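Tip: read the tokens left to right.
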């Protein structure tokens, strides 16, 4: 049979063949899926036979479970609050102890510093008092030396005047003795009198010198150290 070029029969045959192939493939896929579902159902039955079925939770059981959970949470929160309060108390207690210790150390430091300052003040006051006493004693010795110099100068002048007077007396008496020429007895008596006056003047001068030496030794002698 001759097929013409414009005859649509060959294209229809090709489409029908493709549709048949796709349908056969879908049938195979469906068969495989059904097989897998059957296997899964069989496995589920086996598992159901090995495991006890679970009962449905009632409202009371759910409420009891929630209450237990809330109670545990409340206890946990309470413990956390107690721990927080305890830690806060411990921290405050430690801060108070540190503050007291720092205050005691500060007071002890101030007391030690005050005692050191008082000791230094006493030492300075004692040194100043010793210096004042030394200055007073030095002034006293200086004044005494000055008075001693004046006193010794006066005594020296008196001694010189006394010696000059004695010499004048002896010289005048001798001149009278040699110029008068009355009698030897009177002249002898006058000579003895002049000698006695010169001796008395010499003794007086010696006594004055002894007194000066004694006063000088008493001033030069060191005074005992004062505590």
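Filled-in amino acids:
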């Amino acid at each position: 049979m001759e097929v013409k070029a414009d005859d649509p029969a060959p294209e229809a045959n090709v489409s029908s063949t493709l549709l048949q192939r796709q349908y056969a493939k879908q049938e195979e896929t469906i068969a495989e899926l059904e097989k897998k579902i059957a296997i899964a159902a069989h496995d589920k039955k086996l598992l159901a036979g090995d495991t006890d079925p679970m009962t449905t939770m009632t409202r009371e059981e759910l409420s009891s479970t929630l209450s237990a959970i809330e109670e545990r949470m409340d206890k946990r929160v309470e413990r956390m609050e107690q721990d927080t309060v305890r830690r806060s108390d411990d921290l405050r207690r430690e801060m108070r102890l540190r503050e007291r210790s720092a205050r005691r150390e500060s007071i002890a430091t101030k007391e030690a510093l005050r005692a050191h300052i008082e000791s230094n003040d006493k030492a300075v006051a004692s040194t100043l008092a010793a210096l004042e006493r030394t200055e007073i004693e030095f002034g006293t010795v200086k004044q005494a030396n000055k008075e001693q110099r004046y006193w010794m100068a006066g005594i020296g002048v008196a001694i010189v005047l006394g010696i000059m007077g004695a010499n004048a007396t002896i010289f005048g008496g001798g001149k009278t003795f040699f110029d008068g020429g009355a009698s030897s007895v009177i002249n002898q008596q006058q000579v003895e009198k002049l000698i006695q006056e010169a001796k008395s003047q010499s003794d007086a001068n010696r006594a004055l010198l002894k007194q000066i030496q004694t006063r000088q030794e008493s001033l030069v002698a060191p005074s005992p150290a004062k505590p």
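The radius of gyration is 74 Å. The CA atoms of residues 155 and 209 lie 8 Å apart.
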